[in-house]
Design a protein that fits this description.
290 residues; alpha/beta; 5 strands
Length: 290
Amino acid sequence: MAYRFIQENHKIFGMRWLLRRLNIFPNAYYNYIKSKKKDYYANKEKILIEIQNIYHENKGVNGYRSMRVFLERKNIKLSALTVHKYMNKELGLYAIVRRKKANYKKCKPHKVFENLIKQNFSADKKNQKWCTDFTYLFLSDGRKRYNCSILDLYDRSIVASITDKKIDSDLAIRTLKKAIESQPKIKDKLIIHSDQGSQYTSKDFIEFCKSVGITQSMNKAGYPYDNSPMERYYNTLKNECVNLHHYHTDKELYESIEDFAYTWYNHVRPHTYNNYKTPFEARYKIKILG
């Protein structure tokens, strides 16, 4: 019994012996330890409050990885593991769950172009490889609307986004025109990659691409992974914007989509492809201060 008592308390006795050897009063040492713990818990409480504020300001879209980036912008540097612990285990905060993607019917293609991308979703410079696609959106009364967006594979920025009532070649052409106009004059070869939808195989779209010197590239039929950056963008758009709101008018929907693309996605949201920099930071080699 005495031996067990000594075993359980040898660390305490050893510490007291050491303190006496250093001429330090044990009470002073233990008060110091308590003070340090008090400071630690006070600082931790501030961090937890900051995590909650960021989470709710961003409508619950942050997982622990992106939360770490937002905290770092406020000069709070923590490991991803610590942020995961604070968010999920201590605060019970999780990124909102994505809805399952609906099955969309594709029109029979008229003319198919070679897949020049071949799942090489990287680019050496801006305006070298663009991806484009359509997605379905809904107003609160069930009316369907369509968004066409163009993404630059160099930094994953959205260079153009238009939402409208019809999903046709005109919407595809207007979006491409908007993308071209948003950039400095494009001198080098530019590839635009899409699926085999009739909007992109139409005579009008093909002739417009030729007129501006843009080379077309297309997925293999039935292979959505051949355009996975666009798939991921639309998942993010719906998960972090569209599915969080009810849109009663076209104006509400259109403005929300544009604000998401050009403000939140391009300038605020950290992107894993860019090593958690925003597309804007990666595109122009700058750092956005929190």
